[in-house]
Structures are given as C-alpha cells and as structure tokens.
What we know:
The complex is a heterodimer. Chain A has helices at 53-60, 85-98, 116-127, 132-145, 162-174, 192-209, 220-226, 244-249, 254-262, 268-273, and strands spanning 10-20, 26-37, 42-46, 68-73, 76-77, 99-102, 180-184, 212-217, 229-234, 237-243, 314-315, 321-322. By secondary structure, chain A is an alpha/beta fold.
Amino acid sequence: MKRTNDTPLLAVEGLSKYFRMSRTDVLKAVDGVSFEVFKGETVGLVGESGCGKSTTGRCIVRLHEPSAGSVRFDGEDVYAPVRSRAEARARSRRLCKDMQMVFQNPYSSLNPRMTVKDIVGEGLSLAGRMGERERDERITELLRTVGLGADHVSRFPHEFSGGQRQRIGIARALSVDPRFIVCDEPISALDVSIQAQVINMLKRLQAERGLTYLFIAHDLSVVKYVSDRVIVMYLGTVVEQSESVELYRHPLHPYTRALFSAIPEADPRIAKGRERILLKGEIPSPINPKDECRFADRCPMAQAVCRSGRPPLRDMGGGHSVACFLA
Amino acid sequence: MPEPILDVQDLSYSFKTYGGEVEAVRGVSFNVFPGEVVGIVGESGCGKSVSAQCALRLNPEPPGFRKGGRLLYKGEDVFGKTEREMRDMRGTEIGFVFQDPMTYLNPTMKIGAQVEEVFVGRPGVSRKDAKRRSAEMLRLVGISDVERRSNQYPHELSGGMKQRVMIAMALVGGPSLIIADEPTTSLDVTIEAQILELLDGLRKKLGTSIVIITHDLGVIAKMCDRVYVMYGGKVVESGPVEDIFYRTAHPYTAGLLGSIARLETECADELKAIEGTPPDLFSPPPGCPFAARCDYAMRVCYERPAPGYDLGGGHASSCWLRHEYAAPVELRSPCAPGTVA
C-alpha cells in the first residue's frame, strides 16, 4: 500500500444523499457511507448501476450537496458553513484546484461549442492569473501529457474519437494541477483496445504527479487492476471494504462473492468451468428502503437476523471490513 | 457434415452518405450450423452488427446497399427475396435480440401485445393461440406473474426484465436461428449472468442456433462454440473458441486479449494497449486493416489484403505472418495454458 502517512487526504463520514420523490417517498441514493482515501493511493468504488457510487463521487467534488454526513479534504470540512459569499467563493476555488473529476461519458461532458483550447484552458484562467502566452504553452504541454498534439488545440470535441475525448477530459482535470481526482467510470464508454490506453495513461500520470484517485467503476477486473483498496457498494451502502488483493482472494460478503462469480472471464476454460452464484431477482428500489440488510432479498444465505436491522461495517482485521451479520 | 443454417459468402455491404461511401463490411464470410452458438467479436464500427443485420435485411436501404457476395439462409439467398417474404421470415425463421431493450421496445404498447405481434397477419394462428403462446414464452424466459406483466408497459419493467421480454419476442415465433446483438451490454454484471444463463438454457431446451455479437471477450468465452473476430469490416480470425483464446493466430486478437484487465492480472503489470485507432471506413486501407496498429506489420501488410490461412480444425487467420516466407512470430495469448497462474 502506498500510504505515506496516517492522516487521510479524504475522509468521508456518514455521507448520505436523499432525493425527495414525493411527499411520502424518499430515494436514498447514498445512505451513511464512510471511508478514507490516503495520499497517493487509488481507491476503487464498485457496484452495479443505482448503487450510489457516482452520487458518492459527485458529493465529494461538490456537484451534489449531501443530505447528511461530512466530507473532509486534507482536514478541511468541504461543507462547513460559511459566513459570506466571498468566503464561499474562495473556498470553492481552492477546492476546485485540489479536487477534479473525470466523467463517464466523453460525448456529453465536453461542451460541443468550445474548442479544446477553451475546454482545457478554462480551469487555468479561473485558477490564477496567467499571460496568454504562458497559458497557451501550458495547454499544449497538458495535451502532450495526455498524448494529443499541439495541432489539436483549435478543434472541437466532435472532431475526436471517444478515446481522444476522454484524453481531453483528463487534460481538463489535470489543468489546475489537482491532488485528487474522482474518475467516474472513465473507460466504460470506450472500446476495449482503447480502454487499456486510457488506464495505462491514468496510472502513468499518477506515478509522475503523485495523484490520488477515487476510481468509480462497475468492471471488477479493471478495478482490481488499478486499485490499492476497493470499496463495494450495494444500494447506497458500503457492504465490504478491503485491500484489493485481499478482497479478491477472500471476499466475505455474499454480494461481493456473487459479483465476482458473475464476471464473464475472458478465458473459455474458466468461464465455462466455473460454478456461478446466480442472484435471484433485480436490484431493489432505493426508494424508502426497509431497515434491514439491503441485500437480504437477493442473498442466498439470508436468515432471520438479516431482517433485524442494518448490519454495521465490522472490522475483520488487516483493514478488511464487511457489513454482514453472517460473516 | 450438415448444411449450415446461415451461410455468408464474401459479403460486402456499404452505406452511401454525403461524405462518401462507408464500406462497413468488406468481404465477410461466416456460417452457422444447426444448434451452434457462434460469436462475432469486434469493436464498434468493425461491421459486426451490419453483417448480422443483413441476415434479416434490417439495414435501411438506401443508404445501405449490398456491394457483393451472398447471404444464404437455409440455402436461399436472402438478398433475392421480396420485402413480403422477408417479413414472413422475421421472427419465425430468424429472431433478433437487440442491444438496448429500452429503445427497441415500443413504449406505447403493452408487453403482451408486443410479444404477440409476431403472429399478426400469420394465417393459422388465432388471437387466442397467439396469447397463449406469448404467455408461455414469457414464462419460459423467467418473467413471473405473466398475467400482470403482459398488461404493463416497458417503462414499468427493469432493464433485465426488458431484455427477457426482447428474448421472448425473438423466440415466440419458433425461429431456427437467433441473432443477439450485444444482448447484455446495457446490463449489470449480476443481471448479465442471469441473461447469459437464460440464453444457454433456452438453446439446450429448444435447440435454436444462436449468433452472439459482442465486444466482450468474456461473453464469448462463456457462451460460444465458434468465434469470428472482426476488424475494419473484415473477419481477421475465426475458429473454435479454444483456438481463438489459446492458440491465437492474429495479432489483433492477441492484442485484444492482452489489453483487457483480468482478475489474475497483477497491479504491477502494465496492460498491453493497442496503440492507435481503428481505420476509417470511408477510405479503408488497401492491405490488412490492422497493419497500421500491428507490431509485426511488414510491407506487404500495407499493400495487399492477407488471404485466409487455414490452420487446421476450422481455425483460420487472415494474416501475412502465416505466409511461408514470413519470419516466424510467436503470438502469446495471455490466457494460453501455462501463462495463467
């Protein structure tokens, strides 16, 4: 593990994000999520669609305001009350310089009416005073870092392929020299042969710049490959959290096990020979969830105790924790 | 040897656009035998969907048109049929499962009616019959409470359920062949596992042949007997699934297998990305479509398309490296025996 010291760069505690659907219905997208991210490491956040992983990421970079809980970045409470608008703006600038996000869909996350130069340069102009020349030089340098050429600066997003667009998105995130980047499914919209290019680049950038990543994805093989630690989410809650190698060797939560066994492994002998744990049914609705283990309805091992309340995240030693009554 | 149920011979298919002609499929041959599961794998824009949709003439014409080659279904050339004959084939001879059930189901029609629609205008099937058969099929694909579900609209169903309905629609007419175009791409892994299991079970139960089109090598490994790997509008390698994964003979296939992260991949190893991007099909390269990205490309690769080299046992590769004058190259598949921990 790449922890350099023991104070986390990012500490999320009891984070919840509820969306009110009607007078009686509340959609609990994220419900009491806590974890820490240390400097220089990559933490993977996995789960199926609707489990709240993207909402968690968006709450961290302040694209959503959480309903409860706290997010501390480098010791500072990101959502601490402020006295004036000027103070709020100053904090917003400071945090934007430190925390950036790479979005899932490179087609919809770049403004089609802005040139690459404007897209990548926008952050630079906001982050500090900089002369035109210097700014242009920085943009060219950023583009080179992500494998694009100087001749690309005056083009528009539609002139690029998906992989190239994702590189532009990464260059935009890097432009303000952040310390922490939330990568929200950065490769799932890309073709297989392009995915590896982007992953390798993210890993290289991390090594060169000492970046810290929160890597959100639904592809477990990719998450295992890039992450030092992995957090598994299900229906708004963390079900398991561990160092990545340990998690893949000894998954403790029945959901994690089912998730692993469902991966279509690209090897016929493994894929055809493996006994799959097939989960019954679909992911239940996160609207007005019951006060019990969220996975109980689909769990092959569920017992009466699972309906008695929400299982707490228990430490099983060695940084491995699991939220299951039976583990 | 039995007759193939679907036999595509040197098919070329293009689209006329304002920007010029897009040569989406350039001389593709593949076949499907009764009871077989055949996979067509490739990246977006490689021509896999277009060539499969030709089997039912689903590509809009114009702008699409057949440039050459034949596509035989049970010995008859599909391109020689009238639109009326095609309509009779769709659903009863060949069923089609589309990628995105959210867009391919009619949002204004109830589930039951959509499944029954296959029988509309078919002599010999009464409304009552149609209803009974559709309910039976919905049950078979694992929809519980069919009575209630038949009366619901697509938006009331989850993604996995909708995909089950799509499969029911493809199967209800009793086709001999099902073409599934990315059947699980829009689904979550645990739901994907359910759907793949369902397709596998239905094949065993009904004996239907299946063509699976996908970009996911994991789906191929799990489901298929034989595989065609497509790139830049051509089939670059084909053969039994074991040969493709363990005795890989085309640099593109090897690159594809090397570029995916697997559970066994250690964090320290770098993924072997294929540099560059796929060719532009407005002006496809005269030689091998993969030459510009290939580590082993020779001069001939840029100039002339490689012939298909038969490697025995139904395994074939369109790569000049198989030519007798080419220097021997050992392509290592990351999942070849001995390399997997």
